[in-house]
Amino acid sequence: SKTPLQAMKDWYKLKPELFKKIPYQLTGRDNYVAGRLPRDPLEDAPYPWRLRRMPQTQVEIFTGPDARAHLHELDPATHRVAGLTPDGFLKVVVSL
User: Fold this and answer.
1) Best label site of 4, 81, 93, 96, fewest CB within 10 Å?
2) Alpha carbon distance 14, 10 (integer Å)
């Protein structure tokens, strides 16, 4: 059986007009596709910004309904879910 690169090289010999470049081997592995990326250095860093407290001020955020699975990451005292809009967006009210 042929490797994908060898198959591309064979195809290049038959139909070179279909290629912009000659197929060649790249060094190293594709770590992004393989899921072997280095750890993000900002993962443990403090947030670079925050919302200023503004008593008695609220904002409405409209987002996808799947965001509900991540609301546990917010302080429960600062937000409430106001349900779905007729268009299917999740409405979240956030106290500033």
Assistant:
1) 4
2) 7
Pairing verdict, β 58-63 and 90-95? antiparallel
Please choose, from the candidates 63, 59, 60, 71, the residue with its C-alpha nearest in 3D space to the C-alpha of residue 88.
63
Per-residue pLDDT at 10 exceeds 90: yes
Give the DSSP letter string of the chain. Answer: ---HHHHHHHHHHH-GGG-SS---PPSS--HHHHT-PPPPTTTTSPPS--PPP-TT-EEEEEE-GGGGGGGGGS-GGGEEEEEE-TTSPEEEEEE-
**Span 10-27, average pLDDT:** 88
The mean per-residue pLDDT over the stretch 70-74 comes to 87
Distances (CA, A) of 64 to 12, 70, 76, 78: 45, 11, 19, 19
